[in-house]
Give the backbone structure.
Amino acid sequence: MTNNPCCRIVVLISGSGSNLQAFIDSAASGELPADIVAVISNRPQAYGLQRASQADIATAALDHTSFASREDFDRALIKLIDPYQPDLIILAGFMRILTPGFVQYYRGRLLNIHPSLLPKYPGLNTHQRAIDAGDSHAGATVHFVTEELDGGPAIVQAQVPIKTTDTAETLAKSVLIEEHRIYPLAATWFAEGKLQLQQDGVVLNGEKLSKYGFQFNQ
Ligand code: GRF
């Protein structure tokens, strides 16, 4: 780990953590000028916690099933996150809907990745829905998190052509490869001070982005 004072990142996960791994690799190579200071999972068995430990990153599990309400869980999560003094919070396959209180508290420094070309297909089963709709392309979107589920302003999108032979599983694999490219890239822009959430949208390098965000591979 570098000791970069500019950007301290906390990553929230629920599962395998392949996006987390992309962040770990990007920070280790120096491409992402940031320190991943903690990885927190709402599922104690998440494999991503092992990836973090292997990279000497602090880990914590906060089991959502031991909380009576979403509000209680989110308050405890803030208490766990804040001592790490993060500049940026990354949701990387974090499968919990966050309360407005949590989202507002971290407004402008809370990012998510969603496996669809938002605003298409917020929610679950995105790949099957894209196939069923006969879409020519699927993809992924990194966005700032706001109160609207998968509805925050887009930062960057990557597209993947849908092949006639694609199933939801094969398409998910192709999309995931792109996720691992665009998510650390968005964090790099943030760490370099090039990316801001403003009242009327996202600004990258001083210019307002379209509602689809920066188009990575077009
Ligand atoms: C990714 O497809 C992400 O877009 C979605 O959940 C998946 C997480 O994968 N929100 P991983 O845990 O990063 O491997």
